Automatic annotation (TrEMBL), chain A:
This is Molybdopterin synthase catalytic subunit. Pathway: Cofactor biosynthesis; molybdopterin biosynthesis. Heterotetramer of 2 MoaD subunits and 2 MoaE subunits. Also stable as homodimer. The enzyme changes between these two forms during catalysis. Keywords: Molybdenum cofactor biosynthesis. It catalyses: 2 [molybdopterin-synthase sulfur-carrier protein]-C-terminal-Gly-aminoethanethioate + cyclic pyranopterin phosphate + H2O = molybdopterin + 2 [molybdopterin-synthase sulfur-carrier protein]-C-terminal Gly-Gly + 2 H(+). InterPro entries: MoaE_sf, Mopterin_biosynth_MoaE. It comes from the Bacteria. Belongs to the MoaE family.
UniProtKB/TrEMBL annotation, chain B:
It comes from Wenyingzhuangia gilva. Belongs to the MoaD family. The keyword Nucleotide-binding applies. It holds the Pfam family ThiS. This is Molybdopterin synthase sulfur carrier subunit. The lineage of its organism: Bacteria, Pseudomonadati, Bacteroidota, Flavobacteriia, Flavobacteriales. Keywords: Nucleotide-binding. InterPro entries: Beta-grasp_dom_sf, MOCS2A, Mopterin_synth/thiamin_S_b, ThiS/MoaD-like.
Length: 144, 80
């Protein structure tokens, strides 16, 4: 199974996302793209505000898991291509930490595939998030 | 026999390390016994939630661990 590295150090920039979209203009069998962007939320917890999340991962397992998820998604839905990127290290509130991009000849397949992908990534990838508050204390994030 | 144990996220704050070589007796090498030995070494892990992966796959307590395997203690996932 081909393994891609999905991890990017720091936030995923709007430029990076725009470039990814631009690269698909030569693939003219595509009729629909669907994109999910996960953004770090400035949650308020017990009077303190989250200023950033510091992401770490069990990278070898996560990259294998992403390959598995990628194969399963290609099997289930009619997709032309699929890209997954996740941040490692510090991502400030308001910045992007997850970029999932699927493309298909038809919109419904793209939309169904994207929801499946995002939910599976959140549930199954060994990525950990330390929520850092403005006063530099922290707590550990758990996906709900 | 020796196995590698990796710790992630919150668990690193308890063990103060991201990885160690851990010696286990060959006749007690299912995952449950190794977990007990680790909990004995780091009692504060008892207050945490985690799954254990062996060679990058989450396994249950009866799984039989071999020399050189890589175990990883994984707290709840928080990607995305």
């Amino acid at each position: 199974m081909k393994k891609h590295n999905v991890f990017i150090e720091g936030a995923i920039t709007p430029d990076f996302i725009a470039n990814s979209i631009a690269k698909h203009q030569t693939k003219t069998t595509i009729g629909a793209h669907d994109i999910f962007l996960g953004q770090v939320r400035a949650d308020e917890i017990n009077g303190k505000t989250v200023s950033a999340i510091e992401y770490t991962a069990y990278e070898e397992m996560a990259n294998s898991k992403f390959s598995e998820i990628r194969e399963a998604t290609f099997d289930k839905f009619e997709l032309t291509c699929m890209h997954i990127y996740h941040s490692l290290g510090t991502v400030k509130a308001g910045e992007i930490c997850l970029f999932v991009f699927v493309s298909s000849p038809r919109r419904k397949e793209a939309m169904k595939a994207l929801e499946y992908l995002v939910e599976t990534i959140k549930a199954e990838s060994p990525i950990f998030g330390k929520e850092i508050f403005e006063d530099e204390t922290h707590q550990w994030k758990v996906n709900s | 026999m020796l196995v590698t144990i990796k710790y992630f996220g919150q668990l690193v704050e308890i063990t103060n390390k991201t990885q160690e070589s851990f010696s286990v007796e060959t006749d007690t090498c299912n995952l449950e016994n190794i977990e007990k030995a680790i909990l004995n070494k780091y009692p504060n892990l008892n207050n945490t939630t985690y799954n254990i992966a062996v060679n990058q796959k989450i396994e249950n307590k009866t799984f039989s661990v071999k020399e050189g395997d890589e175990l990883a203690f994984l707290p709840p996932f928080a990607g995305g």
